[in-house]
Amino acid sequence: MYSHWSITGSVITREGESPKRRVNNLETREKLGLNQLPKPDSRTNEPLPESADAYQKIEMEKAKQDDGLADLSDLLGELKNMAIDMGTEIERFSFISLNYCT
């Protein structure tokens, strides 16, 4: 009956559905071509010409991301230095105001 066997997961059936009806349903689906097995992968392990182009595009995108991350890192470094400078100024003014008030 079947020329190919495949392993399938558990089957959920409606309550009261008989196994005979299930078999008939499977046979009907097979006749309609709805239970066809997946076609074997026809790709080979040889790299295709377009895959080299895709690889180059990926490398270009990686380079762009690296540049963007470097810019972001520089900006965060500048913000850190600004925050340190602001903290220093706040401490200086706090020290001056404490000495002025006493």
TrEMBL record:
Origin: domain of life: Eukaryota
Record Gene3D superfamilies: 1.20.5.110
Stretches for region Disordered: 16-50
GO cellular component: plasma membrane
Protein name per UniProt: t-SNARE coiled-coil homology domain-containing protein
Organism taxonomic ancestry: Eukaryota, Viridiplantae, Streptophyta, Embryophyta, Tracheophyta
